[in-house]
Amino acid sequence: MFRLYDNPASPFCRKVQVLLHETGQTGDVETIFAVGHPLDTGRLPLDHNPLGKIPCLLKADGAALYDSRVICRFLDMRAGAGLYPENALWEVLTLEAMADGIMDAAVLMIYEGRARPEPIRYPDWVEAQWAKIERALDTGTARWAGLLAGDLNIGQIALGCALGYLDFRLADRDWRTGRAPLAAWFDTFGRRESMAATAPKA
Ligand code: BEZ
Q: Measured in angstroms, how far is the CA atom of residue 176 from the centroid of ligand 1?
């Protein structure tokens, strides 16, 4: 049995949860609710991950695995699920990295409003994060069509979770406008049982 420090709003945690569903491993993991940020670390797994970040997976021997990329790779290997296809490995990993970067930028935008006191918020910095996301989405539409159309892989899961987070926390930014192919892909991908079962919750 594994223990997973998790938060149902986190897109990084959702990656792990989607993978658990897709690979039939949900019954092997006990989920522990974790919440916080660098200024409020009270319910983060600092004893297991010195960075305090989630997701963090504890193996039966107590060893901790983090971050989401390491955990996903570990669980894929454990299940022999093939979400990291050898013939497209570097492309799939790069798509995953891009999707994780979208999540990073979006979470930073949210935490700027949540954790930083009003007088020292920096709107230009927030907009620069959004510009990063827009560039990534435009690249995504053009570059990743082949990978998105193929068999399920970790890049698809990561991108699905990143887009789901934009809908969850940044819906007013309307990422779909001008990106019909990506929107259509997400419309289909988002109907997977694993995505429906892991929809983000505040
Ligand atoms: C959120 O509430 O948006 C959130 C929670 C945990 C990690 C990342 C984001």
A: 22
Q: What is the pLDDT of residues 174-201, one digit of tens each?
A: 999 999 999 999 999 999 999 999 999 9
42-61: average pLDDT: 96
* pTM for the predicted model, two decimal places: 0.97
Atom nearest to 202 CA in ligand 1: 2
From CA 47, how far away is CA 8, in angstroms rounded? 21
Give the side-chain half-sphere CA count within 13 A for 6.
Answer: 21
**Residue at 158: amino acid letter:** A
107 touches ligand 1 (CB under 6 Å):
yes
pLDDT tens for residues 149-178?
A: 999 999 999 999 999 999 999 999 999 999
Please give the distance, rounded to the nearest whole angstrom, from the Cα atom of residue 124 to the centre of ligand 1: 22
**Distance from the alpha carbon of residue 9 to the mean position of ligand 1, in angstroms:** 5
